[in-house]
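About this split. The held-out portion is used to measure sequence recovery: a designer receives only the structure tokens and must propose an amino acid at every position. Recovery is the fraction of positions where the proposal matches the reference. Here is one held-out target exactly as it appears in the evaluation file.
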């Protein structure tokens, strides 16, 4: 199994009936009703030899649930790609569609929940249903993976059990999410350590209020590159 096999499998997943119904209802909730929606689980995006994973929350109904690519087609994604481009990790500052030519360098985007949830709030059982997809993705990335930048508390809490069940040691009590928090997790089997970095989520709730600025996000990613280089 490689990342392409995983991506091919995840887009067919129907494990969560509530989310399947919600993601597929999106076109009827849109003003542009003739627009074609992806309306399926959204696979990871980025090269298989990435050293930096970006872990978000879940697709937005009219963002990546529409375009079929992580963080593509909404304001959260606009903000994130602008920062990634500024620090040299994305080939373009704007992400518009699945076939806009965007290339990520050294970064793989993934999410703990792959289908758009109502009010951006997945249920605990939906998060648990989706966990094996994230676990498999991190396992496949593991040979090169050195840093996980986690956007928001939901992703942080969803990711820690995945890392514990894999091959990294998570301190007890578990570290709390915060912007700028950085935790180095040793490997349990002699492999490379993984550095976990917290960043406020790039949602308009944070970016429109100034709680999260471009410079703050760029700083996190510059730091992620430095850590990966160590
Ligand atoms: Fe499958 Fe995850 Fe979507 Fe649930 S959220 S249907 S587990 S891809």
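Reference sequence for scoring:
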């Amino acid at each position: 199994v490689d990342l392409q096999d995983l991506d091919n499998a995840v887009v067919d997943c129907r494990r969560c009936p509530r989310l399947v119904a919600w993601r597929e209802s999106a076109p009827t909730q849109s003003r542009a009703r003739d627009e074609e929606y992806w309306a399926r689980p959204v696979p990871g995006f980025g090269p298989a030899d990435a050293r930096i994973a970006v872990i978000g929350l879940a697709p937005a109904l009219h963002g990546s649930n529409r375009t079929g690519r992580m963080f593509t087609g909404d304001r959260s994604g606009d903000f994130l790609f602008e920062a990634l481009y500024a620090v040299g990790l994305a080939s373009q500052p704007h992400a518009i569609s699945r076939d806009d030519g965007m290339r990520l360098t050294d970064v793989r985007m993934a999410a703990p929940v792959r289908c758009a949830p109502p009010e951006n709030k997945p249920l605990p059982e939906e998060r648990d249903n989706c966990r094996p997809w994230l676990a498999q993705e991190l396992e496949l990335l593991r040979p090169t993976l050195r840093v996980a930048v986690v956007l928001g508390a939901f992703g942080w809490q969803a990711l820690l059990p995945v890392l514990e069940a894999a091959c990294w040691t998570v301190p007890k009590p578990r570290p709390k999410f915060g912007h700028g928090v950085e935790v180095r997790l040793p490997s349990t089997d002699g492999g490379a350590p993984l550095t976990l970095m917290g960043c406020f989520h790039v949602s308009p709730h944070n970016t429109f209020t100034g709680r999260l600025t471009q410079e703050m996000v760029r700083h996190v990613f510059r730091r992620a590159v430095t850590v990966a280089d160590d």
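Annotator remark: The mean pLDDT is 96.
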